[in-house]
Amino acid sequence: MKWTKKLAGISAVSLLALGLAACGDDDKDNASGGSDKTAGEMVDYKITGIDPGAGIMEATDRAISDYGLDKWELTTGSGAAMTASLKKAIDKEEPIIITGWTPHWMFTKYDLKYLDDPKGSYGGEEEIHTIGRLGLKEDYPEAYQILQNFKWDEEDMGEVMIAIIDGEDPKVAAENWVKDNEDKVAEWTDGVEKVDGEKFNLAYVAWDSEIASTNVMAKVLEDQGYKVKMSQVEAGPMWTSVADGSSDALLAGWLPVTHKTYAEKYEGKFEDLGTSMTGVKIGLTVPEYMDIDSIEDLKE
Fold it and tell me: Which residues form a coiled coil (predicted)?
């Protein structure tokens, strides 16, 4: 009788262990596609987005319509909240679909992929433009020239973003990058005379990429003698402030798709000072371990 009870106990423990193991396997299968669940069922038909004023959110609403994703919901929040949700999902190897863009540090930190967009809801490659208020050239010719000369690449921006994500203060991260890249900064300031304490206002949206670029440019302008004020706002107010002249410039003009609405709304009320970065991109993004490759897959 004692042996029978012991064997029964062992059997119960074994069955419990097998059951728990099976549950764990199911979770991974759900993410990797080994489950009978559709992609929508795995994520409760939810796309994790960022702030509601961002152009990528408008593009995602367009994608939901273009692809007939009637069951799907685009949630709003902030860039920080989105990346926190992404980290939580990846730590547990769970499925998640987010609004993503490059350059962004998350593509360096995690194995991610864009979902193919055959209908072109997100457009093709984008560019980041520097946008100035009307009259900027006449009022601040030195700053105008530096902003026109401003060009860098994804690797440059990535260095600043990663430093900030790793805990560095954005201003310190920018100072370190400027110090380590004197040759590149010299190209932006070549032939530009220094000023004596003139005030200059930069508006920016709280994307990691724009936090990096705005802090770097603020440091460069300060080294030229400007007193720089940085104003963090959402995308709409950022464009509005340049259009009405309350801000002098922004470095976050994602065109032709992401900020198309604002560029069209304020046409004739700003000056495009040029492209600071090419080959940038926006779109729906998932971890590599998810067994889906196209937005079309979300219809199933």
Answer: none
